[in-house]
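For the sake of transparency, this paper describes our internal protein records without simplification. An entry from our holdings is shown next, in its original layout:
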Amino acid sequence: MNNRPGCLAGLLRLAVLNVVFDFLQERFGFGRGCSCSGIGCGIILLILFVIFACSIVTGIDWFRFL
């Protein structure tokens, strides 16, 4: 049985991910914090965004091991 979500659900998840990413980038991302902490947090947030976006687009559940 195929339990994949539809296109609209995927687009909604991407929209929510975008809003959360923008909020976190404004608070902790590039250009925030002292010296290199803003760059470090910005890169970490960018990597997490790419992982979650690929997970939503491809339908891979990274927390399921079976």
Remarks:
- Residues 7-58 form one domain.
- The chain has a mean pLDDT of 79.
- The chain has one domain: 7-58.
- The helical segments are 7-28, 37-58.
